[in-house]
Structures are given as C-alpha cells and as structure tokens.
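Weekly modeling sync, notes
Attendees: S.R. (lead), two postdocs, one rotation student

Agenda item 3: backlog of single-chain predictions. S.R. asked that every request posted to the team notebook include the full sequence so nobody has to chase files. The rotation student volunteered to paste the first one in as an example of the format we agreed on. Action items at the bottom.

Example entry:
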Amino acid sequence: MEIDAKLVRRLVDAQFPQWRGLSIRQVIPGGWDNRTFRLGEELLVRLPSADGYAAAVAKEQRWLPVIAPAVPLAVPVPVALGTPTREFRRPWSVYRWIEGTPALDVPDLDLTALAADLAQFLTALAQVDTRDAPTAGPHSFWRGAHPQVYDADVQRCLAELDGRIDTTAAQAIWDAAGDAGITSAPVWFHGDIAPGNLLIRDGRLSAVIDFGTSGVGDPACDLAIAWTVLDDPARAVFRERMPWDEATWIRGRAWALWKTMLTLADASGTHDPAEESRKSRAVIERILVDTR
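Predicted structure, as returned to the notebook:
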C-alpha cells in the first residue's frame, strides 16, 4: 500500500474537516513501523506501514495520556484517532508535533548527558501504574519478554556469522542470558529505545517518542542502547543511575546482541551494506569487550 501525502490529505479531509486548510508534508526519515506526516505546524499524522503495527495505535491512544504526567520528558500527545476506510484499512493517529532533533542527527552529542537523562526517564517510566496495562506479547514484538523468545533468530545468525565474529563468545553471552531468569515484578518498558526515538533540544534529551512496542514486562529490552549507542563512560553513568539488578543487565546485553547480529546478518538488504556491517561489527565488539 502506498502511503503518501495525497492519501493523508484525503483521510484528514474526510474525517477531520476542521484541518482541511492545513498543509501536509512527509517527515523524512519517517520510521519503519509508521509513516509520519506533519499536519500544519502543530500536528502530525502517523499511519501504520503494515497490518502488524496497527495494534499500536489503540495502545498509544489509551496509555500515552497515563504515562505523560508521570515521566520527566515530553512524550507524544494523542489528539485524534482516525478510523479505517476502504482505501486505508488500518486505524491511524493525529498527535501534537514535538520539536527536537533525533539523537542520531546531532553532531558531537554529549553521550554522558544523554545516558543520565535517559536513565531518569526510564526509571520514572518503570514506576507508572501497571494496572490493566498491556503485557508483553505480539503487540510489542515480544519486547518485555525474556530475550530467549528470539533464540531461533540468534542461532540462525550465529551460523551465518561464523568466521565473521567471535561466535563462541556471542553464544556464551546468549547462554548467560538464558540462565538469568526474570524475578522482579513487571514494569512499564518503552521497547524501542533507539536514537531515532530520542529527541534532543539544546544538547539534552527533551522527548521520547514512538511507544508502539511499549507495554508491561521485563525492562531489560530498554537497556540495549547501553551497547548500541553509548560509549564506555556513558554506559557507566547509565548503569549507575538505573535501579536494575545484574540479571537484568545480562538480559539487556542479550537484547543488544540479538538486534545487532540480526542487523549484521541481514545487512545485504540495506541501502549501504558496507556501512551497516561496519557499525554492527563495532557494536558486537563493544558488547564482547564489555563482557570480558
């Protein structure tokens, strides 16, 4: 299904005529799970890019207003819920526009400050009331579950990457996570703490967006950024300011390893395979060195 500004124009005009006069322009890059369009200067429209992402719409509409007052940074504010049509058969959302630059696009970003701000946010998120909240499952792509749910992916990657990375060490990290059971009570997690979902203003983290894979469960999935983005000093600050035990960090390392090995194994399908492979190898080496 082609999702473009013309489609968004038709959807908005039909369902929200009060915004017919507002301009529509696509946000680039707009994310993988959703296509994002700016509606005027104060709003944005997000449309799920595939059926598997549609469940996140109702979840965000229901739970973002609960999360927002409990966390120290801005999160998306739902303004309206678009209904499926014959032309676009998925629900969609209108949100308030949040100013900020994705962390990935900020040159010379202070990673230690980012780690401190992010730790504060995730600690507050984990304290949000979990009553009736969605537990980890298909809607979160199993973020919030134990990383072993993706064991088949990891074993495939280990076979494909044999000779390209230290698969013995990688298997040991994965096995250690298997032995690190979840013993703490389930809490709110974000599920996709990645640079594109972290907005920076004046050099500091100001907003966290895209709660499509959020839910209640094990927060270890939100720790993967400690290895995928943060350097050694920033990782130390991040770990020091988070309340989780050693077993949670072991599972978090496994989440980082799973995602990065998957990216490396499938890098040939990206727009720049050589660069994607280089970055993935660097992250895997960081994980292995930190473990040693």
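Discussion: group reviewed the output briefly. The CA atoms of residues 108 and 203 lie 9 Å apart.
Action items: rotation student to repeat for the remaining queue; S.R. to check formatting next week.
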